Amino acid sequence: MFWQMPSIISNIEPLLDKQGVELSEILEEESVIQECKAQNQKLITYLAQDSILDQLVDAIVTEPSAELPHRQRYRRANVCCELLACDADALTTGLVKENRRLDQLYDFLKGEPPLNPLLSSFFSKVMQLLARKQSDRLLAYLSSKGEEFIDLLIRHMGTSAVMDFLVSVVTMRSVDEYGLQYQQLQQQQSTQVAAWLAQTGLVDKLLATLASDRSPEEQYNGAQCLINIIAYCRDLAAAAQDSSEAANSSSAASSTPSATLLDQLESGDTAGKLLAKMLDGAGGPSESGVAAGA
């Protein structure tokens, strides 16, 4: 006997054919996320319009009205986030083609701590996608902000989604193509990121989050960042060493920017600062600070 599995009947096509259809109508359709993930080109073309993209971005970084019922308050932002994160080239390209949308996303970090955890997770998810799919453009934009960008992330280190975004920035490189030549380009991009981060004082700023007067959340997230960065830089340095040996290059892997960042992390000076941050403080060392530093 043939059994047909139940499925959601999509009304997306009739909606998209409707003259002057509003984004709110599209977002109410239950199958909209599924259709976007399935790369429905008519839907993606609609979402990639400048006016619609502006609304999608605005939804994920703007506090919803407190007058809305609690269960509905973040539905729009959640759906908009899922649509932007559907890995559609037209959408990721639209997000980075002009600075104004990146500015809108970046300005979210300028809010007072603590950031809304749900909006932070939406923001982080979209930015992590851009770090993978539009890494060149995002790197150029973020590096133009100088130390301010890192300072904003450190300011919100108590928010785990921000910590996740910082890790994605450290490991930022395009993942769409393969082959030896592209691997070399990836390695070049990774060393550019490491060089930039080394210049921003990232290591010292992360160490500052371990101070005994910082919150347990800041201490834990700061420590986790340091651990992830050390592991990544070690892998990068090993890959650079393998590449130089394979090419019989006379240049040492230790001269790469990633190794420079790793040297900062593993230096005796950093170890001393780590102990000082863990143990200093008016009230003496905090249990969470010692645990994070360990």
What this model shows, in words?
With 294 residues, the chain is mainly α. It folds into 2 domains: 22-176, no CATH class; 194-247 and 254-294. Helices cover 68% and strands 0% of the residues. It contains 19 helices and no strands. Helix 10 packs across helix 11 (135-143) and helix 15 (202-208) runs antiparallel to helix 16. The longest helix has 31 residues, at 216-246. The radius of gyration is 22 Å and the shape is globular. The model is unreliable at 1-7 and 250-255 (pLDDT under 50).
Give a summary of the structure in a few sentences:
This protein is an all-alpha fold and 294 residues long. It is built from 19 helices and no strands.
Write the layout of secondary structure elements.
Elements (H helix, E strand, L loop, with lengths): L11 H6 L5 H6 L3 H6 L3 H7 L2 H12 L8 H4 L1 H10 L4 H8 L2 H9 L9 H17 L1 H9 L3 H9 L4 H11 L9 H20 L2 H7 L7 H31 L10 H10 L1 H12 L7 H7 L1
Helix pairs in contact: 5-7, 7-10, 10-11, 10-13, 13-16, 14-16, 14-17, 15-16, 15-18, 16-17, 16-19, 18-19
InterPro entries: SAPS
Keywords: Cell cycle
Family: Belongs to the SAPS family.
